[in-house]
Amino acid sequence: MSTAVFPGSFDPVTTGHVDLIRRASRMFDRLVVGVLVNSAKQPLFSKEERVAMLREITVDQDNIEVSSFEGLLVDFVKEQHADAIVRGLRTPGDFEYELPLAQANHKLSVQADTIFLASAPEYSYISSSAVRELLRYQADISGYVPETVLRYMREHGVVSN
User: Fold this and answer.
1) Pairwise CA distance, residues 25 & 5, whole Å
2) Which of 2, 24, 94, 142 has its CA 20 to 30 A from that of 123?
3) Distances (CA, A) of 114 to 7, 37, 117, 156, 157
């Protein structure tokens, strides 16, 4: 059974993330969405909330699991017995950032190769940082995040509409 890990902070989950998750889930028997806990950042949502949102968003996909992790990605990949790491690429800059990480992960553990998935053109400009920036100026983000995320944001007073 082929297993892949799709890691990220998912803070917040965007429509681009959801597209990549669904596409990657068709490529593997099992896809583990790994919610990274980065202690250096102040997240918009707790890891439990991000995991809950992703589980709700992917509830209709039997081969998708959502879990959080801290520490090295390669350790999480080993725990999940994964064959691959899936990373999304929106821009050439993403590739420049991701390639050295993929090479370092390979050096640390040859168990799983990194597979790069190009974002669909309609999502190439969407990122969690862009959503957070739009939120700062109280702009409409409804086209950038799934309805589940909007609901969580309303419940937490992050957005009012």
Assistant:
1) 10
2) 2
3) 11, 20, 10, 35, 37
Long-range contacts, 49-55 (Cβ 8 Å, 24+):
49/152, 50/9, 50/10, 50/11, 50/12, 50/13, 53/10, 53/12, 53/13, 53/148, 53/149, 53/152, 54/10, 54/13, 54/21
Do the Cβ atoms of 63 and 29 come closer than 8 Å? yes
pLDDT of residue 161: 62
Which run of H or of E encompasses 133? helix 128-136
CB 85 within 8 Å of CB 112 = yes
Give the neighbor-by-neighbor strand order of the sheet with 30-36. 64-69, 30-36, 3-8, 84-89, 113-118
pLDDT in tens, 120-147: 999 999 999 999 999 999 999 999 999 9
If phi over 0 gives left and psi between -120 and 50 gives alpha, with beta otherwise, what is residue 155? alpha
Of 110 and 113, the structure prediction assigns the larger pLDDT to: 113
* 118 has a pLDDT exceeding 80: yes
Catalytic positions? 17, 41, 90, 128
